[in-house]
Design goal:
The structure holds 3 protein chains of 3 kinds. Chain B is mostly helical. Chain B is built from 6 helices and 2 strands, in the order αααββααα. In chain B, helix 1 crosses helix 3. Chain C is built from 12 helices and 5 strands.
């Protein structure tokens, strides 16, 4: 499986602070990859490095093909019309598909003469998406594309995106701090926290290998070696833990539950207020 | 043409929900051999889910011999699902009902019954694999 | 990319065009009347001259106002087209759209700079041309084009100034990343450089010529007087016509300036006059004995020394125009180079 985005030892420093450090990542092609993490974790930095808006302080990042980018808050030129933006795209990209762009504008019921500054948030996001898609990129990178949108606009945006991917097989990396959206749409997940990659794996694999176990209070070091504790919490009588394991858990002393993607992400991000032990950096399995 | 919907709170993974909805439609006669399933693009355009999810569902249905994909055209129903399998399970259903009565007599509430069944089922499945 | 560059400055170009048009109309409407006025004054005689003359002095006032205003317009255009070029993209976040297309950042910037420079140069050039045409009757009088007050409104330097302002705006915008700050820096920087050039540098671009003029008793002078006596005598620069006078010194036949001892001795008559109280010069004509003392002082000095006037002849007008334009255009190019470097290397 070829990798559409490869980062090797990628790091970016601003003054004394590292916004991103030691980032090793291989995103397989043909996926819709979600990039999650708390605010300030380095998601925007990673995306900006990938599209060359930023230069790395150390390491490198490569994209196998052409990039399309949708920045946070969907920047557009407020004084230019929708049609102007299409012209903008056509003049600046040799691979521009004007027919597709025009058809999209019509499907969205956008007035081509409308100034982009007068569009609603959802319309602006859709216009920006059209601009990014019409150059027929191999990899589409989106920085929190739906964060500021109402639920309907959000659904429409994701529907447009996934329909395009269904038809063209474009690879996608989209960042969000709302895991719920990603769960529907992503089949690969990258978790960034504290400027580092904590997880990078197929969603199916993550869901298959992570479980919540709960039972009588117990010392977790007594668990079998193939069970890796990601997060745990103890009360007086009960122990709960989120574990990673390749095998099934047979021990009848535990109640074993499957997890949602959000549960897995939260576990790696440190979990609830009683989280113990504190967050340990874990590298995901590259497949 | 059938339309899919997703219950994000059902705990069942999306691809499985699609598989179940197709099987259900087949069982009810809403889908008949020769009917075309919605294209991946259409499903995804309505539900806003990953295309691979739909592909996985269609692949599983194909494995089960219920549908067949024709490259460049679409995915078409090839078989029906009769109610015979369910009807044939009548004896099993009766046994289960009798067991349930016993479980209630033993003082188990709903959650205990579920937990008991779940654990036993899991252990038994593991033993089968092992 | 050219289309994009023009489209983005469409509004600014429209405003510039409107301004040029408005200025052109103003000049076009008032020009012929002014021309007529000057023609009448040249050929008048007797009483009628009085009316024309007062009207002319009013027109002169307009010249004094319009001239600087019309020079400020290219500067303002340079600022409004240059400062926002990079900084507005950074402030509004649209750089994340512009710099992720299939053109390189360098090509984007160079094209946008070039297109803006074209508009600025054209606007400045047209305005200067219109104003020069309008001023033809004025230029036929004694006012010399090479005089600093007139020089910066004629020829090609206004275009060079505008390009410099533009380039300074672009560079300031790239480095400061804020449009308003960039505009302020551009305005301030422009004024500073122009002042340094006009007051200090320009006169030395070509070695000044000198002319010897006799020191007559009626020559107006400035005297520096202390308790010891008169220490220095500086004559006012005479009007030598069609030249830009830079300064006047005193020299004898071998070229040496007078010593303070000599001045003290030659102007000892002034010492017998009481100095004004608290050192403040009273207004009005000086009393006759002061005048006589000063005249005798100057007469004494004038026996051995003459005035040496340092000046630039009017014939050097175009030489200075080209030199100064080259300097400002050179500065503009350097600033634009800085801007490109900054956007490429430092905004990453």
């Amino acid at each position: 499986m070829t990798s559409i985005l490869t980062a090797a030892g990628l790091g970016k420093r601003y003054g004394r602070k590292w916004a991103l450090r030691d980032c090793n990542l291989e995103v397989p092609e043909g996926r819709i990859a979600g990039l999650v993490g708390p605010n300030g974790a380095g998601k925007s930095t990673l995306l900006h490095l990938a599209v060359r808006l930023l230069e790395p302080t150390e390491g490198s990042v490569e994209v196998d093909g052409q990039c399309g980018f949708l920045a946070q808050d969907a920047p557009v030129y407020a004084a230019l019309s929708v049609a102007d933006h299409l012209q903008f795209g056509a003049h600046l990209n040799p691979s521009w598909d004007q027919a597709f762009a025009a058809e999209r504008v019509e499907a969205l019921s956008l007035d081509p003469k409308q100034r982009a500054g007068k569009l609603s948030g959802g319309q602006r996001a859709q216009l920006a998406l059209t601009l990014a898609l019409a150059k027929r990129p191999d990899l589409l990178l989106l920085d929190e594309p739906v964060a500021a949108l109402d639920p309907l606009a959000r659904r429409d945006f994701l529907a447009t995106l996934t329909a395009y991917v269904a038809e063209h097989g474009t690879s996608v990396v989209l960042s969000s701090h709302l895991v719920a959206d990603l769960e529907r749409v992503c089949d690969f997940l990258v978790l960034l926290s504290a400027a580092r990659v904590q997880l990078a794996d197929d969603v199916d694999a993550l869901l298959a290998t992570h479980r919540r176990i709960s039972g009588v209070r117990r010392d977790l070091t007594t668990l079998p070696a193939d069970l890796q504790v990601i997060w745990s919490s103890h009360t007086e009588k009960q122990t709960t833990a989120i574990v990673r394991t390749e095998a099934t858990i047979h021990d009848p002393a535990w109640r074993v539950d499957e997890l949602s993607l959000e549960d897995v992400v939260l576990a790696y991000m440190g979990g609830g207020p009683e989280a113990n032990p504190p967050l340990r950096p874990v590298l995901g399995v590259a497949r | 043409m059938i339309e899919f919907h997703l219950d994000s709170r059902s705990g069942v993974s999306p691809y499985l929900q699609i598989v179940q909805q197709v099987r259900h439609a087949l069982r009810l006669g809403l889908l008949e051999p020769g009917d075309q399933l919605p294209t991946v693009k259409d499903v995804v355009g309505t539900l806003a889910i990953n295309p691979n999810t739909v592909l996985k569902a269609y692949r599983e249905l194909e494995h089960a011999g219920l549908v067949a994909g024709r490259p460049g055209v679409g995915t078409f129903v090839t078989a029906t699902l009769s109610d015979a399998p369910l009807a044939a399970q009548l004896p099993l259903r009766r046994e289960l009902e009798r067991w349930l009565v016993k479980a209630r007599a033993a003082g188990l509430d709903d959650e205990s019954i579920e937990a008991l069944f779940r654990d036993t089922f899991r252990l038994a499945s593991a033993r089968e694999i092992a | 990319m050219t289309w994009v560059a023009f489209r983005q400055i469409r509004m600014s170009t429209a405003v510039s065009a409107a301004l040029v048009l408005a200025a052109g109309l103003l000049l076009g409407v008032t020009g012929p009347h002014l021309s007529h006025l000057y023609a009448a004054l040249r050929s008048c005689s007797g009483l009628s001259c009085g009316a024309d003359s007062s009207e002319l002095s009013r027109a002169d006032l307009h010249v004094r106002l319009i001239g600087p205003a019309l020079v400020a317009v290219p500067l303002v255009l340079g600022v409004f087209l240059g400062a926002p070029l990079v900084s507005r993209e950074l402030e509004s976040g649209t750089y994340r759209l512009a710099w992720t297309q299939s053109v390189s950042r360098t090509r984007w910037l160079v094209t946008r700079i070039g297109v803006g420079a074209l508009v600025v140069a054209l606007a400045a050039g047209l305005l200067t041309f219109a104003f020069t045409w309008w001023s033809i009757p004025l230029d036929h009088t004694d006012t010399s084009r090479i005089d600093p007050a007139i020089f910066s409104q004629r020829g090609i330097v206004p275009v060079a100034y505008a390009l410099f302002a533009y380039a300074l705006g672009v560079a300031a915008g790239a480095v400061l990343r804020r449009t308003l700050a960039a505009m302020a820096v551009t305005l301030g920087g422009f004024v500073a450089v122009r002042m340094v050039m006009q007051l200090v540098v320009r006169q030395h671009l070509l070695t000044p010529l000198t002319k010897a003029v006799a020191l007559t008793p009626r020559t107006p002078v400035d005297l520096m007087r202390t308790s010891n006596g008169v220490q220095k005598l500086v004559p006012h620069s005479p009007d030598i016509g069609h030249a830009w006078t830079l300064g006047t010194t005193l020299a004898d036949s071998s070229g040496h300036p007078p010593t303070s001892a000599f001045i003290r001795q030659a102007c000892s008559a002034i010492m017998s006059i009481k100095p004004p109280a608290s050192g403040i010069r009273k207004s009005g004509p000086p009393p006759p004995q002061v005048l006589a003392a000063v005249r005798s002082c100057v007469h004494n000095v004038g026996l051995s020394y003459h005035e040496v006037v340092s000046y630039q002849p009017a014939s050097r007008f175009w030489a200075f125009q080209w030199l100064e334009s080259a300097i400002f255009v050179g500065l503009a190019v350097a600033l634009l180079g800085l801007a490109v470097y900054w956007v490429r290397r430092r905004l990453v």
